[in-house]
Structures are given as structure tokens and as C-alpha cells.
Amino acid sequence: MMINWKKAIGLTAAAAMLLPLAACGGSDSSKGASSSSEGGAVTLKVWAPQEDQDGDNSWLSQVEANFEKAHPEYKITWKNDVVSEGDASKTVQTDPASAADVYMFASDQLGTLLDAGAIGQLGTDAATQVKKQNNDTEINSVTGSDGNLYGVPYTDNTWFMYYDKSAFSEDDVKSLDAMVAKAPVAFSLSNSWYIGGFYSGLTLFGEKGNDADAGMVFPKDSVDITKYLAGLVANPNFHDSAENSGLSELQAGTVKAYFSGTWDAATIKKALGDNYAAAQLPTFTVNGQTKQMKSFAATKAAAYNPNAKNPKVAAQFAAYLGSTESQKLHYELRQIPPSDKSLADLTADDLAAKAQSDTMANTAIVQSGLSGMNDWWAPAETFGKALVNKEVTADNAQEKTDAWVNQVGKYAE
């Protein structure tokens, strides 16, 4: 799976393999993706985060220049605007017809974008690209309820564990129970993106996250897990990381482990120095049974707008933004870990990137992009805060857990 890109084929040939079938003018299931002209003057409106556009030689400007070289048949006028991945869906919704032709989005917004008719289905070649580059979790993150693909992932978006290796051994960090027996650990239990990690067996709209009828299903032993969490909160070595306070505590040395994502890697590496380490999520034990913590797994991806004046070219460029070469450049310029499996060697010495990759592959569940996920966030946050405030206890765990589960989903049968 590893590719030495110094020996890889030339840019034009590589781009040709990565483009959607629509680029060849063949039949394609992409909405409108074969309706564009074969060449000539093209204007593409592109949305990307500010950080990808900073400076004269930014990542986006280099990718656009590379795309132009690969496609001399187009005379492209680029209109770049700043819209972050997290803001893509709400910005698109204001007027899908006049939104960007190509944009970058967080995969949990997929359902909203589909409802707005503002995201185009990938062509056959682009879908093949995505399947070749990624593991099932990443593929599922951009799969609509119709089973079709609607985005080209370029990085993972999840959380894992950072720790001080002077406090914990590699064996210690396999078990949260072993860790809190030795030293303080910070975890965002009051944050709805994190609390679900303890409910081992939880599924969000099916195993692939795209089955609206499946709903949110909690494990049968959720009440026992709630009792475990009530006990964990009572442990003086457990610190709730409200408003990311765990990062400050890790920097100060008052906790020795903290759960977060790659966005905190540089800060934590500076704080821990030679003791810096990261790993996939640990297990914990409930009533003698080993449970695996599992984070919500999502991606950031590139997409095209089917309302674009030149949807074929837009589809091509969206695929190119997520190509292996573009992901490699993204890491070299901005240390954005690639989701592309063939680039594993590139991040071999990057502990956070490896922990993220291991978590996506081994200790995560798909964070559904369906609009039904909106029902998760507020109730989960409320329940997490109640645990932290010790309003949920071992004595009332049945009542409180039942109320939460019945509000958002159901127990497994």
C-alpha cells in the first residue's frame, strides 16, 4: 500500500486516474456532471479555510496551479473565498444555487447538504479513488442514505489520547482503569462529542451511519456503564475537561493524560517535550467485562455543487483536492494528516497522526452525517453534565439512563 512518490508517475497521468468518470464525458451518475463543455474558459468559485489560503504560495494556490497544469484544456479563473469546513453547510444553505462550485466540508454535515441539494454525487472514477484511498470508516462518512458517495475525504476528524509517558507505560495506556489508578486523567465527559465513547456498542443510524430508519441504538448494558461513569467521576484522578480545561491542566502537569485531536498536537508536544506520547483509545471494565472506548469518527472532505455552471470541471477539481498528491502537499505545508492509506509512511514519525489513524481503524464508530444526528447533541451534553455534577448516581442510574435513551433512541434488542 505504500507509495514512493519520488518514483510515482507524472502529475498529468496521476490526475487522469483520479478524475471522475464525468471528466471523460462518459455516462455518469453524478447529477449534471457530464453537462459541461470539454474545455475553454471556466470560472470556479472555491471555498476553503483561511489557513489553506494564507500567503502567496498557500496550499490552495499550489493545488489550483497543479490542476491547471494537469488540464491545459481549461482556462480557469479562480474565485476563492474563506469558508471553513465547519461552516460549509450553513453557508451553502443560504443560497445553494449561488454557493461555491467546490468546497470543503465536515462529513457530519452531509445530510444537511443533501437536503439542500447542494452536494454532487461522485462519478465512477472519483468513487473508485475514494475507495482505494480510504478504509471503511472514512468511506462510510461520505456515503449518503442512498448508498452513493458525495465527498472526497482528505483527513480524519476524531479524538484519541495524549499522555505523559513518564507517568504511564505502554501497557498502562491500554486500560483507562489502570491509568486512573496511577495518575490524573482529563476527559471531556460533559461534552456531547465525547461522552458516547463510553457506551460501547452504541450505533448511530446503523453500522455505516447512513440508515435513517435504524436510529440511535444504545447497548443493553447502558445502565451498568452509567454506574461505572458515576464511579469514575467520584475518582479524584478523573478530571472533567470542561471547555477543554484538560489541555491547560496537561500543560501545567496537574493531569498526565488528555483526550483530544490532532489540532492540539503541537501545543501538547511542546508541553510534554521528551515525555510526549499519543495512542488510540483504551479499554475500561464494567462488571468484569472489558469494554472498548470508541470515539465518533468523521472526516473532512472536498465536494462539488451540482448547481455549478461547470459541474464537470467542479467535480474534477473536488476529486483533485482529495487526491494523494494534494493530501501529501497538505501535510507538508500544514501538517494535516492524510486519510490516504498509501501515505502512511509520510506520517510514520508523527505520533498524533498515527494515534488518529489507529483510532479511526480500531477504536471509533462512524459519526453519522444524517440530519437525525442533531437529536444527539443537547441531550448527551445534559446527561454528561449531570454525571459530572453527581446528579446521576449509581442509585438513580436506571431512571436517568432510561430517560436519556428514550429521548434520543432505544436500547438494543
Q: How many structural domains?
A: 2
Looking at the structure, the CATH topology of the largest domain is D-Maltodextrin-Binding Protein, domain 2
Distance between the termini: 40 Å
Radius of gyration: 22 Å
Counted by DSSP, the helix tally is 15
Question: Uncertain spans, ≥5 residues at pLDDT below 50?
Answer: 1-37
DSSP strand (E) fraction? Answer: 15-25%
CATH architecture of the largest domain: 3-Layer(aba) Sandwich
Describe the structure.
The protein is of the alpha/beta class and 413 residues long. It has 2 domains: 11-157 and 298-352, D-Maltodextrin-Binding Protein, domain 2 (3-Layer(aba) Sandwich); 160-296 and 365-411, D-Maltodextrin-Binding Protein, domain 2 (3-Layer(aba) Sandwich). It is built from 15 helices and 16 strands. The chain has helices at 11-18, 59-70, 88-93, 110-115, 124-133, 136-141, 176-180, 222-234, 245-252, 265-272, 311-321, 324-334, 351-362, 374-388, 397-408, and strands at 40-48, 74-82, 102-106, 152-157, 160-164, 185-187, 203-204, 216-218, 238-240, 257-260, 276-279, 283-286, 289-292, 295-304, 364-366, 410-411. The strands form 6 sheets. Strands 3, 4, 14 and 15 form a 4-stranded mixed sheet that branches. The chain has a 3-stranded antiparallel sheet with strand order 10-5-11. It has a 3-stranded mixed sheet with strand order 7-8-16. α1 (11-18) packs across α2.
